[in-house]
Amino acid sequence: MNIKYIYKRARILGIASLMLIGQSCSDLLDEKVVSGISNEYINTPKGFEDAVNAAYSSLRNYYGTQPGLTLTEYGTDIYATGADGGYKGFHFYDTQLNPTVDYLASIWDELYRGVNTCNAIIGRAPAATVTDAVKKLRVAEAKFLRGHYYFILFQQWGGVDLRLTETLAPTKVTKRATEAEMYAAIIKDLTEAIADLPNSSSQYGRATKPAAEMALAKVYLAKAYSSSKASDDFSKAATLCSNVINNYGFKLLDNFASVFDENNQKNSEIVFAVQYTSDVLTNLTNNTGAANGGNNLHLFYGMQYDVQAGMQRDVLNGRPFKRLRPTAYCLDVVFGDRVNDSRYKKTFKDTWYSNKPGTYNTAFDDSKATVTFAAGDTAIFIPGYEMTKEERAKKKYQVLVPSKYSEALFPTLTKFFDTKRPDMTYESGSRDYFVFRLADTYLMLAEAQLGAGNKQAATDAINMVRRRAAWPGKQSAMEVTTSQMTFDLVVEERARELVGEQTRWMDLKRWGNLVERVQKYNPQAAPNVKAIHLVRPIPQTQIDRTEGGNATFAQNSGY
């Protein structure tokens, strides 16, 4: 039984989970909680299991959702705005990015729900009527999740309210923890989780030892660039990444495209995934940015193919919300090598086949006046280079060249395409979201070894990813030497491999080069981005709920 089928269980434990998100002191609404479940339910065998299952559910509000995507891919060096949608302050770093933005509050609140559910599990475990073995395992899962939730909060907002015991009633007494306190608590949770988690689980989607090791490696990498850095942070991260690579049987797939095959989601490369399903009740979550929840990343990277000549919207090609388009730097530099590296072709959709036959005037291709299509004919082709007008005139379809890219027309990321949706308007997707995968582990190992001064080990690690990405017969051309093994290579290799996977903003924040790279490669954001944007504004709702307000729970500088 996959854990995806037990995510649906109760936010009924949320009485305790609403720690910093209760109503104001207004007496306009006198809420009466009606429930047949007592506060002692968690101590029963069923209640204890339900609590642990509920603790996982907060992952679904951050991973595979528009709010999570907005906080992780908007406003970076590799993605800029598409034509549609709101929340563009996260792209532009202008006054639209402010403490009242609802996505900030919804992610904040949901992560704290998850934290407090974990606190309840850990604190009440001694009284739970389950075996010691079950207690040990489920508490380890809760510590993995709590450490992970706090790491997201910490990376996005800096020091936050660090609560490690269950909050049983609304409170207005809060304070911000220091950087050192945040790192200490997160590292302690994940270290203890590693000690007690199993190598694997019969319930796919539960926390395991390698998932916790990879989570902790990410923490040590972030710490290595921070003011709390220690001389052994890089080496600790390298050891953890090596454990994940060597000890559990994970294996890079031979074909990069196969990683995102929607019919092969439980593949040998996946270390930890958030589970989704076609069951509407199971997928239902709060504030995900799409109707009925689900993994809805399939919506946000698509170009406006559906109003072009010979095309109409269908399930196969997706519902294009046009929220993000790749920057010129992403396409021309990151994916500049298309002779040896297969990832441009396997990451972006470049061909659309007509599903609306007929004769049409051309829109973006000035090499011909009209085009005529039968069903299944090529309707749109994106060559990825500036094909001449004469070359385009010979084609029976429209050719979209880089000079014609716009906020509506651009190469479309295919990693999250979901063809199993019941109809073309359906927003909720059923694909799992890959939080940790092995290629990321190799790239983290390369970064850690480079930081530790082991250039040969770093080179060996990054070449594992680069060889897999090569076109057949081009493996040797993709390999780099130790003299080519630089930090800049790590920065660009992570973009090539992980583009769109909710990692980029967190990477740039960790490295401390967000401002520099956005100014250099993202013209939309360059005029406004500055050092204050290495953290997000604290939600105003949080400050308003705090006794003493901003004087007690200070807003991040500049907001």
From TrEMBL:
UniProt-annotated location(s): Cell outer membrane
KW DNA-binding (keyword) present: no
Pfam families associated with the record: SusD-like_3, SusD_RagB
Domain annotation SusD-like N-terminal: ranges: 51-221
Keyword annotations from UniProtKB, A to Z: Cell outer membrane, Membrane, Signal
Domain RagB/SusD: 269-559
SUPFAM superfamilies per the UniProt record, alphabetical: TPR-like
Family stated for the protein in its record: Belongs to the SusD family.
UniProt protein name: RagB/SusD family nutrient uptake outer membrane protein
Lineage: Bacteria, Pseudomonadati, Bacteroidota, Cytophagia, Cytophagales
